[in-house]
């Protein structure tokens, strides 16, 4: 792994680094205890030992190096404390650096600076010790997932044979992570009562190593038996060539239509994708003419929007939608419509607070709703179910339209959906 720099210099100033996606996923598993007995990123001796014979330097079996690499010009040295941050700048952990090699490998134990507070399904990212305590002494059947499960009967039969609790472990990593978690939640509803879902962000490796790491993580969660679910279905073509639905949801007055129109204009200026904007008011006047604002008709309106958007995306187009879409189940239906035709789906939650939306009230709708003149008005007399699976959450309070549009463009570029 290269020559090791040995130094006894006093610790330098505060240092920081943003690991890549795989390193961040490994970091989360280290901090949660799912990678026990590891407590930090491996050094050169451990990494070389794992590569050679599948064991740590002390002889502990381990299938894969868990390492952190820094560029050559990063000033960190042994004895330093390195703050590790997520891509948004939030401090995730502190690493006590014990080794720095010439080729950039940095090793040392890590200490958590707090559990993640955001991101899709953050509430399901739970440490093994907590889950083991919840499941108690009963045997556990752990099922690791990288895609939808194709045989729930086998899982049910195995659990009954073992008299075991079922633990679904969606290995949520990268852009497809939320879809795997959603598949686990849907499977849970069809499995025996008491089935538990816990997210484990294990990055994929080579098939044999991947299976071994699945076994290790399952064991950390107390599994007496482990089943590995099937591999995910790969969508055809690179992201910038696949169809895409960008679906904005939020309260009336949140700014979602304004940002959506700005995104539409920005994409037309770039000219690299075929873009269709499905404006909510226009759809109501034409495609959904005659529908009321009852829950049933509002759901039907969203389904119609989703159907048209999926048809645009089916042929490689990019569809932008900006309805209120207050109900999670209906939003999930639209996501399924897009993914079913081989397209991608991005959910943007414009999470501007109700008070700010009501302060704007350009159409006077909130005032009428408060006066009882508009029944079933979202946020006042009808609920809005905030998404927990949004790809981007955006509060437009105090920001410019341009800034909001840039946030969405950054999301498209980061996912390779826009060149």
Automatic annotation (TrEMBL):
Q: Name one GO molecular function term.
A: adenylylsulfate kinase activity
Domain of life of the organism in this record? Bacteria
Q: Where does ATP bind?
A: 250-257
Report the sequence similarity comment from the record: Belongs to the APS kinase family.
Any idea what job this protein has? Catalyzes the synthesis of activated sulfate.
**Span of domain APS kinase:** 242-395
- Root EC class: transferase
Q: Which residues form the ATP-sulfurylase PUA-like domain?
A: 20-99
Q: Which reaction does it catalyse?
A: adenosine 5'-phosphosulfate + ATP = 3'-phosphoadenylyl sulfate + ADP + H(+)
- Asked whether the UniProt record includes NADP among its keywords, one would answer no
This protein is called what? Answer: Adenylyl-sulfate kinase
Task: Give the species.
Answer: Sphaerisporangium dianthi
Q: Does the keyword ATP-binding apply?
A: yes
User: What HAMAP family does the database record attribute to this sequence?
Assistant: Adenylyl_sulf_kinase
Q: What is its EC number?
A: 2.7.1.25
């Amino acid at each position: 792994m290269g020559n090791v720099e040995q130094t006894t210099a006093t610790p330098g100033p505060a240092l920081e680094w943003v690991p890549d996606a795989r390193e961040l996923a490994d970091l989360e598993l280290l901090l949660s205890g799912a990678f026990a007995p590891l407590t930090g990123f491996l050094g050169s001796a451990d990494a070389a030992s794992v590569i050679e014979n599948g064991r740590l330097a002390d002889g502990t079996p381990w299938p894969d190096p868990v390492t952190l690499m820094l560029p050559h010009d990063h000033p960190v040295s042994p004895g330093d404390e390195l703050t590790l941050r997520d891509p948004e700048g939030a401090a995730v952990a502190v690493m006590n650096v014990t080794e720095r090699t010439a080729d950039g490998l940095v090793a040392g134990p890590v200490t958590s600076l707090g559990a993640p507070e955001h991101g899709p399904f953050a509430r399901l990212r739970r440490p093994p010790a907590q889950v083991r305590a919840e499941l108690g002494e009963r045997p556990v059947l752990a099922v690791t997932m990288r895609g939808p499960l194709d045989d729930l009967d086998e899982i049910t039969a195995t659990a009954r044979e073992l008299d075991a609790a079922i633990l679904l472990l969606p290995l949520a990593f990268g852009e497809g992570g939320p879809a795997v978690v959603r598949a686990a939640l849907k499977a849970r509803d069809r499995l025996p009562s008491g089935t538990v879902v816990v997210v484990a962000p294990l990055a994929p490796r080579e098939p044999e190593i991947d299976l071994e790491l699945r076994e290790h993580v399952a064991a950390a969660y107390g599994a007496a038996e482990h089943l590995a679910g099937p591999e995910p279905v790969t969508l055809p073509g690179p992201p910038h060539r696949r169809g895409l639905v960008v679906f904005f949801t939020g309260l009336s007055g949140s700014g979602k239509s304004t940002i959506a129109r700005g995104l539409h204009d920005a994409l037309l200026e770039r000219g690299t994708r075929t873009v269709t904007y499905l404006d909510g008011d226009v759809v109501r006047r034409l495609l959904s003419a005659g529908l009321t604002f009852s829950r049933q008709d509002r759901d039907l309106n969203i389904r119609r929007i989703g159907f048209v958007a999926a048809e645009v995306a089916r042929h490689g187009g990019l569809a932008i939608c900006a309805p209120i879409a207050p109900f999670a189940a209906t939003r999930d239906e639209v996501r399924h419509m897009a993914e079913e035709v081989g397209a991608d789906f991005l959910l943007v939650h414009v999470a501007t607070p109700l008070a700010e939306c009501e302060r704007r009230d350009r159409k006077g709708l909130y005032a009428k709703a408060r006066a009882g003149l508009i029944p079933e008005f979202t946020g006042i007399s009808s609920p809005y179910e905030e998404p927990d699976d949004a790809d981007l959450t955006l509060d437009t309070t105090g920001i410019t339209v341009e800034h909001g549009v840039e946030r969405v463009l950054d999301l498209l570029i980061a996912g390779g959906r826009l060149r």
